[in-house]
Amino acid sequence: MEIKAKRLSDYLNKELIFVKHTYQGKEELFEEVNQVAFKQGFVRGDFLERVQAREAEFPTGIQLEKIGAAIPHTDSECILKEFIAVVTTDQPVAFKRMEDPSQETKAAVIFVLGLNQPHSQLEMLQTLMSVLQNNELLTELLTSTTAEELIDILTNATIKGEK
Amino acid sequence: MKKINVLVACGAGIATSTIIMKKIEDLFKENKIEANLMQIKISEAASKQENADILISTTMLPTTYRIPAITAVPFLTGIGEDKLKEKILVAISEIQANK
Question: Does residue B63 belong to the interface with chain A, where contact is any CB pair within 8 Å?
Answer without folding.
Answer: no
